[in-house]
């Protein structure tokens, strides 16, 4: 892999971020519930809304442009990884792992990640990187506490947690 720079997204990256998200999200077509799919998967207004809601996007770039994007959202006692996508031509080349490790080093709170239950490739990626699926009951509680998503999405999603969250969750039990 060529040298990859991880940096915070700028306003100049907006269109490229949208392009990566919407192209990579095509993998979800026919996988996630049809009533949750729309075209484009993330309209520009939604990306703007996510940024306004505190999602900070980080991009992986090389001399050819943006390779991937991953957002992080501070929710007080936890950080959420949001909207993680890699350019379809660069998937499985380490870009997503670089972005995830970068975000892990940025935050000092436990990390939670929500994704579609049927997106087995995404779940496998996070599990390979040390994340653990939480129980169904805990998933529902966490999605209702930290995310702003409809009930239908809660029902069809999973949550993965990092080691810090799992250790603190175990201490509460």
Can you walk through the features of this model?
- This protein is α+β, with helices and mostly antiparallel strands and 173 residues long.
- It has a single domain (5-172), classed as Gcn5-related N-acetyltransferase (GNAT) (Aminopeptidase), CATH 3.40.630.30.
- It is 39% helix and 25% strand.
- It contains seven helices and seven strands.
- The chain has helices spanning 14-24, 44-52, 95-106, 120-128, 136-146, 151-155, 163-172, and strands at residues 5-8, 55-62, 65-74, 79-86, 111-116, 132-133, 157-161.
- Strands 1-2-3-4-5-7-6 form a seven-stranded mixed sheet, with helices on both faces.
- A hairpin with a 4-residue loop joins strand 3 and strand 4.
- The longest helix is centred in the middle third of the chain and has 12 residues, at 95-106.
- It is globular, with a radius of gyration of 15 Å.
What attributes characterize this protein structure?
single chain, 173 residues, alpha+beta, 7-stranded mixed beta sheet, 7 helices, 25% strand
